[in-house]
Amino acid sequence: MTPNEANRADLGKDPARVSGMFDQVAKGYDRTNTAMTVGNDALWRAATTRAVAPKPGEKILDLGAGTASSSASLARSGAEVVAADFSPGMLAEGQRRHGGMRNLSFVQADATDLPFADGEFDAVTMSYALRNVNDPKKALRELLRVTKPGGRLVINEFSTPPGALFRTAYRFYNSQVLPRVARVAGTNGDAYDYLNESIREWPDQKKLAAWIREAGWTEVQYRNLSFGIVALHRAFKAA
Question: Which residues are involved in binding S-adenosyl-L-methionine (predicted)?
């Protein structure tokens, strides 16, 4: 593959291909997200930050942090935040934008084999990233491992709108409109073809909640945002 050739991941979710795809879209990633979500990405990020409820002195892992927009939002609380991602291109863009925050650090990491100690974090979170991991159940177990007893998990992920009419309209938007928006925004449109496929094949809210419980988390709950386009899952590690 040449440096300028679009890298398109598929549902096999080979880590090298997924990472390479995100490397290529890093510079325009936030701009494209805002365009394709009609600005809802900022509202979803604010909801995630409130759900994590970061406090000064806490240590928080933002896994799949991408360009670290969510990490910066968490770090503004005064908590020590680690922005981790397996895409060096995304991390580089995050450092360019937010590297001046003293309580925000950046680590390249594989979600299924985290380079952190047991019980290192007060809270762990992932936004729109668990879906891109080739073994999401293992990632949920790894997140549990690195969380302190009594610590909390927040997963914000694309999901399944429960209303049939809205769900049909949403799927049409994802398959027909979203890749065109990405291309107009100057990003790798093929990456957003993959995005639509990965959303379509991703389990619904109840199934993801079951996976979180199976991984060992307790008090698992979720709530829908924007009519279920995304769902915010929350859980705790037993004390």
Answer: 67, 85, 110-111, 127
Local structure of residue 128 (DSSP, 8 states): S
Per residue in 97-140, pLDDT (tens digit) is: 999 999 999 999 999 999 999 999 999 999 999 999 999 999 99
146 closest CA partner among 76, 95, 217, 205? 217
Residue 10 known to bind ligand: no
- 221, with CB counted inside 10 A (0-12, 13-18, 19+), is exposed
Strand ranges for the chain from DSSP E: 59-63, 80-85, 104-108, 121-127, 147-158, 218-225, 230-236
pTM of structure: 0.86
**111 has binding-site annotation:** yes
Is domain 15-237 classified as CATH 3.40.50.150? yes
127 is in an annotated binding site: yes
Kindly report the number of other CB atoms within 10 A of residue 25's CB atom: 27
231 Rama sector, left if φ>0, alpha if ψ -120 to 50, beta otherwise: beta
Would you call 85 helix, strand, or coil by DSSP? strand
